């Protein structure tokens, strides 16, 4: 048809979506082919990522239209003199019990303050890293009071079993293995409740906003439907997630339970994304994150409130409620 | 006989040791799964199972095939470039002065350091992967060819010149065959290096692909699949190296005879 | 070959002035010295040497081992540049592969090619059209007595056979000048005499110039139209001896048996030993 | 003269092109920071600045020093092991049959795939880093030495045997010197490979360390520091390779003379 | 050297039975055939050959190029195993470096060692104590006339000089058996005669056995206590000639000038040519 011809020649009908392989509405949209159904004329490719850093790079390389992204990589992306040309358009989930700080039982540590002088591992530049720093601060510890070690989840597991580290801030499924021989000190849920939530956002490129806003609307509608399905059809959601992750239904159910999923209404509310013209609390969260990162010398300077506000795309956001 | 029996014997010994280690439960199963589990994983990722096809919708053979294609293109480009650069640098002094420092610089660069640049410049599809593999395969060939060309027996170059060979004739008929054995060693090393860069090359958007599979499985602590991937990479590497060794024997019968 | 027009001059010792030094195949060595090595460890191998070889001459170089014969040949072939003085071949500065065919002291065969491959390569460089290769190859192999070894690898033939392949290779091109460095040293008497005959016939027929190094006084007198004895340390001309034995229509046996031949041979032998002992 | 002028000239040209590209703003500054920014970053990480010492409390030179120490130990071990294995495998047929498949397997393995195993076995301190570098440096030396040893001129081995050399004499006096040129090429490649594995080796707990610094900076899209690190790695690699090349010239004067 | 006790027997052709075949340095070749190559492309280089060389004999092998002389030497040295038959040296299966010192047809010097280094290595393998090296080295270098080249690299000396280094190396050990494959082919007459004298003196004085390959009939008759002519294709014994010229207290010049010598030389020359032409 002429449509597919346009897609192949102009490439305007192409949608490249980056996703993370952990339980979220994305997996349901992908598994149920909600987006493919909503946008039959688009050529949709799903690309799996496992770090916010590479998502940022892919956006820099103009290789992505829409992608999932943690709130701290996003804060980094929008700060600096030349922010990455993308905007946040959706919230996938909020970190809950699926990211947590655990200490080895044998250390006898039972609270965050007890970690002074201990070796703590976490994947640097991740949301866990951010939450860990926030937890330490809340407990009155400076980062220099502990030994922070940059480890990816699987090495964390290995180092943990050897006894090389005393505690780790990490996510599922490694987290579950650590819990078996450890004490949970805090979780992202608690830290979020204390005002420093970490979130998985969805961002869209400026280019797509200019080129094909209708596709964004359709995508958001699909994501909203997925969030509703998570609540209304838990069994179906578990099956979809299990199939996407290649894990057992029981594992998928357990993982889903530990995440915090908003309803579409919550996403649009002033508590989170807000509406066009009046961004919600997410604006503060992102600004706080950026400020925190700047304090940790992870970024040069705090982006202005304005700069963060400009990285919000809420046009037509409330339409998903219809 | 011995050529086959010895490695097989050592393989058997290795499997037994592995089984003993796994059975001792010194390490959790996530870290050291028993051989049987790895075998199960192998069967799983090779077949359609519970409606799931292989790993991530792609069977092991397909993952491997896609990666091999990337290696073939990437390492192929790297090897060809390496031979060409090596020949020119070995024969023309000023080209060597000009390029050698850059090549040395290039080959000290960690792929993980410049991979983000590749993504930014070349996107997330095939190009950055193939480029990374080419960049990885290039140096061994370029370095060994350059050194070999610079060490071509002067006596044979003179013999060719005395027979009336032009400069180009000399390169084709003396320099190339004389450098061939070392170039082939370089090629063998290059293929190995390309293989070992596979996971790095497939870090981003690497599925389907065996390196991407290994990395993805590692993210989920799915060690059996990681090991299946590693073994698949290693075994296919063995086969290719075996072919290259055979090629060497056929193409360079004169080695050691001079 | 234009050298056919040049009269073959049997030059008298030292009489270098009247020679046509731009004729194809002529060699002129003007006050040449050659030093090997650089810096502290210099070694003067040759010189000063003055020598003029008119086109068509068969010059035989003899002298003690290490006196500089090979070095002189390398200078003429263009593989070395004289430290002092000048070398002229066919009137120009010598360039490898241009005017001279060379048989080196060692065979220098290409190990990645068979016997046949080595000869074919020479034929290609000589500009022989591919269709004529089989014929020429067979001819060359027959001349050096190597029929039947075409498909052997070069390490699968004996030392003398290797040397003969090298000779065949050098004869593939028809250069006006032939430089031969002890080409027959590893050959038995019969093969050697056959090849001597062959080389003598070929050079005479085509008017080619030859510079031939040997340690055999017999060979020197049999082949040379002129014999130059080099003295050692560094190599200089000790004796420059024109040979005017009858060459055409003479049986080799007869020639060797002649009194003149025996005397010349003794003279050369004596000169070499004197030069070497000095 | 030319040996220095040409690379310097090309370096200058490169810097100019870079400046032009950066000034044109075709790419964002995160992607292509102008040379001046990189220079600033270099000064920053080399000095104590606003109370912050270098990068992460360690100056560039110290980062580099720590990594070079790791390379020296790791690559050193790998090279020694490579030479030993190469010699044995090249001389003793059944040892080659036994070990060659394993070594080929080993050198196709992606470090990123087996790194967690290293951590399980060796922890997160120096050992896994040094081991990874050793494993990376081992194959080029082992492979080139094996091939070179197997290709030692039979004529010279025979000459030594005829003079009364024992088997061990032959190895020491003929095999080793004859394989030396290729072994040295292998060593040069090994050092390069070790360098390029630096970031992988320092993925875990890699700070201080230049590879860890590069990775850390890359995580925060701090491109100027990444480039400073890459340049520091490359330049120190250049220096080491230059020394190895000089060594080669001194130790192997006979190359090309046979 | 125990061979001193064995009477040097000038064996008659074919008379191999009465020889002490276990004496140090004796060689026994029993119906030996040697084939090169495997499968389709086999080539029989030698055989069948029967030959018995008693200790103390100076056997000279002559024959056309490619007739199998070097192969025979390699069989005796232990570098090749006969395809058929048996080779015995000092009564046992030959092992390289055990009983025999070898000069190969090409010098085979170690390029990573200087001239001096090459000789020192031979001295070490010969078991000479390090303190005696300077003296022995100087002696060997003087014997082959290479004083002053100790520090040169092996590619910085001439072809003949390389061959002389190889000879010096082989003389470093005092093996009961010497195998020499055209050792003097690249040497001038004077050096050659000096070395011939040297080798003859050394073998006679120490009672060593020698198997010597040459293409020179003159050399063969001058050196040999027995001359074996090999016929070609595959190499077999065509003539086994005992030489009983007076050896001791005879001037070399005189010997060469003698009628007997000339006749023997002619006989050998003729035999070689006949065998080669066949
Ligand atoms: N590796 C090999 N494979 C096949 N044939 C071989 C091999 N080596 C030698 N030959 C053949 O065996 C025969 C004997 O060779 P050998 O080297 O013994 O001759 P030779 O008598 O020493 O000759 P020369 O006087 O030329 O040195 C020759 O015809 C040669 O072509
Ligand atoms: N590269 C070199 N460096 C130093 N000296 C050298 C070099 N090549 C040759 N020589 C010396 O120069 C002299 C002449 O060498 P050349 O090879 O010309 O001798 P030659 O007359 O051919 O001797 P031969 O008859 O032994 O082949 C010899 O004394 C040799 O030692
Ligand atoms: Mg010479
Ligand atoms: Mg021979």
UniProtKB/TrEMBL annotation, chains B, D:
Residues 64-244 form the ABC transmembrane type-1 domain. Keywords: Cell membrane, Membrane, Transmembrane, Transmembrane helix, Transport. The keyword Ribonucleoprotein does not apply. CDD domains: TM_PBP2. One of its GO terms (cellular component) is plasma membrane. It holds the Pfam family BPD_transp_1. One of its GO terms (biological process) is alkanesulfonate transmembrane transport. It is found in: Cell membrane. It comes from the Bacteria. This is ABC transporter permease. The chain crosses the membrane at residues 71-95, 102-124, 130-152, 225-245. Belongs to the binding-protein-dependent transport system permease family. It is a multi-pass membrane protein.
From TrEMBL, chains C, E:
It comes from the Bacteria. Keywords: ATP-binding, Nucleotide-binding, Transport. InterPro entries: AAA+_ATPase, ABC_transporter-like_ATP-bd, ABC_transporter-like_CS, ABC_transporter_ATP-bind, P-loop_NTPase. SUPFAM superfamilies: P-loop containing nucleoside triphosphate hydrolases. PROSITE patterns: ABC_TRANSPORTER_1, ABC_TRANSPORTER_2. Transmembrane segments: none annotated. Coiled coil: none annotated. One of its GO terms (molecular function) is ATP hydrolysis activity. Residues 27-257 form the ABC transporter domain. The keyword ATP-binding applies. This is ABC transporter ATP-binding protein. It comes from Streptomyces lasalocidi. The lineage of its organism: Bacteria, Bacillati, Actinomycetota, Actinomycetes, Kitasatosporales.
């Amino acid at each position: 048809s002429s449509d597919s011809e346009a897609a192949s020649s102009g490439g305007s009908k192409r949608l490249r979506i980056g996703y993370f392989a952990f339980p979220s509405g994305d997996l349901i949209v992908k598994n149920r082919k909600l987006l493919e159904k909503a946008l039959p004329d688009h050529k949709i490719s799903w690309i799996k990522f496992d770090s916010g850093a590479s998502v940022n790079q892919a956006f820099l390389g103009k290789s992505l239209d829409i992608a999932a992204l943690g709130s701290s990589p996003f804060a980094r992306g929008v700060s600096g003199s030349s922010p990455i040309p993308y905007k946040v358009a959706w919230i996938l989930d909020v970190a809950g019990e699926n990211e947590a700080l655990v200490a080895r039982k044998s250390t006898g540590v039972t609270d965050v303050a007890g970690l002074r002088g201990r070796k703590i591992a976490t994947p640097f530049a991740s949301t866990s890293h951010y939450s860990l720093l926030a937890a330490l601060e809340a407990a009155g510890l400076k980062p220099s009071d502990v030994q922070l070690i940059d480890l990816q989840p699987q090495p964390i597991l290995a180092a943990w079993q050897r006894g090389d580290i005393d505690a780790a801030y990490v996510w599922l499924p490694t987290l579950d293995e650590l819990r078996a021989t450890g004490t949970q000190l805090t979780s992202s849920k608690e830290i979020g409740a204390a005002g420093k939530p970490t979130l998985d956002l969805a961002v869209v490129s400026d280019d797509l906003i200019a080129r094909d806003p209708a596709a964004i609307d359709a995508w958001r509608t699909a994501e909203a439907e997925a969030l509703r399905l998570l609540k209304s059809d838990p069994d179906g959601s578990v099956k979809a997630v299990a199939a996407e992750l290649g894990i057992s239904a029981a594992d998928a159910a357990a993982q889903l339970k530990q995440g915090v999923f908003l309803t579409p209404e919550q996403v649009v509310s002033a508590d989170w994304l807000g509406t066009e013209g009046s961004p919600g609390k997410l604006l503060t969260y992102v600004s706080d994150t950026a400020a925190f990162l700047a304090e940790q010398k992870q970024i040069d300077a705090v982006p202005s409130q304005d700069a963060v506000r400009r990285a919000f795309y809420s046009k037509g956001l409330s339409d998903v409620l219809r | 006989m011995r050529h086959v029996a010895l490695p097989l014997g050592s393989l058997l010994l290795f499997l037994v040791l592995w089984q003993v280690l796994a059975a001792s439960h010194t390490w959790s199963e996530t870290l050291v799964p028993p051989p049987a589990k790895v075998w199960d994983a192998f069967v799983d990722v090779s077949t359609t199972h519970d409606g799931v096809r292989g790993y991530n919708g792609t069977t092991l053979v397909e993952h491997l095939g896609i990666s091999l294609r990337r290696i073939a293109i990437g390492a192929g480009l790297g090897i060809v470039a390496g031979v060409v650069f090596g020949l020119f640098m070995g024969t023309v002094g000023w080209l060597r002065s000009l390029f050698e420092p850059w090549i040395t610089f290039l080959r000290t660069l960690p792929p993980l350091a410049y991979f983000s640049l590749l993504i930014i410049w070349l996107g997330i599809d095939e190009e950055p992967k193939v480029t990374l593999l080419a960049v990885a395969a290039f140096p061994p060939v370029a370095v060994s060819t350059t050194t070999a060309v610079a060490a071509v027996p002067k006596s044979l170059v003179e013999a060719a010149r005395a027979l009336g060979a032009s400069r180009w004739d000399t390169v084709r008929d003396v320099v190339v065959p004389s450098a061939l054995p070392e170039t082939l060693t370089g090629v063998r090393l290059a293929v190995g290096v390309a293989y070992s860069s596979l996971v790095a090359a497939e870090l981003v958007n690497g599925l389907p692909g065996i390196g991407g599979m290994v990395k993805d499985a590692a993210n989920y602590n799915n060690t059996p699949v990681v090991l299946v991937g590693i073994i698949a990479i290693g075994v296919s590497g063995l086969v290719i190296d075996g072919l290259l060794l055979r090629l060497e024997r056929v193409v360079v019968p004169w080695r050691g005879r001079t | 070959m234009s050298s056919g027009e040049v009269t073959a001059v049997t030059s008298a010792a030292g009489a270098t002035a009247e020679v046509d030094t731009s004729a194809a195949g002529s060699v002129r060595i003007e006050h040449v010295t050659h030093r090997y090595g650089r810096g502290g460890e210099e070694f003067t191998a040759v010189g000063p040497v003055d020598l003029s070889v008119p086109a068509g001459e068969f010059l035989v170089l003899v002298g003690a081992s290490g006196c500089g014969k090979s070095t002189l040949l390398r200078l003429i072939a263009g593989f070395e540049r004289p430290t002092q003085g000048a070398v002229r071949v066919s009137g120009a500065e010598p360039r490898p592969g241009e005017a001279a065919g060379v048989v080196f002291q060692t065979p220098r065969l290409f190990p990645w090619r068979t016997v046949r491959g080595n000869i074919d390569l020479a034929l290609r460089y000589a500009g022989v059209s591919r269709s004529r290769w089989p014929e020429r190859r067979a001819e060359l192999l027959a001349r050096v007595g190597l029929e039947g070894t075409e498909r052997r690898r070069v390490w699968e033939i004996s030392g003398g056979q290797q040397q003969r392949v090298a000779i065949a290779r050098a004869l593939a091109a028809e250069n006006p000048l032939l430089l031969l460095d002890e080409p027959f040293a590893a050959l038995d008497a019969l093969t050697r005499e056959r090849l001597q005959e062959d080389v003598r016939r070929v050079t005479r027929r085509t008017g080619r110039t030859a510079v031939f190094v040997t340690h055999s006084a017999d060979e020197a007198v049999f082949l040379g139209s002129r014999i130059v004895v080099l003295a050692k340390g560094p190599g200089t001309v000790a004796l420059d001896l024109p040979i005017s034995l009858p060459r055409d229509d003479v049986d080799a046996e007869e020639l060797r048996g002649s009194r003149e031949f025996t005397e010349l041979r003794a003279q050369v032998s004596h000169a070499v030993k004197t030069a070497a002992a000095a």
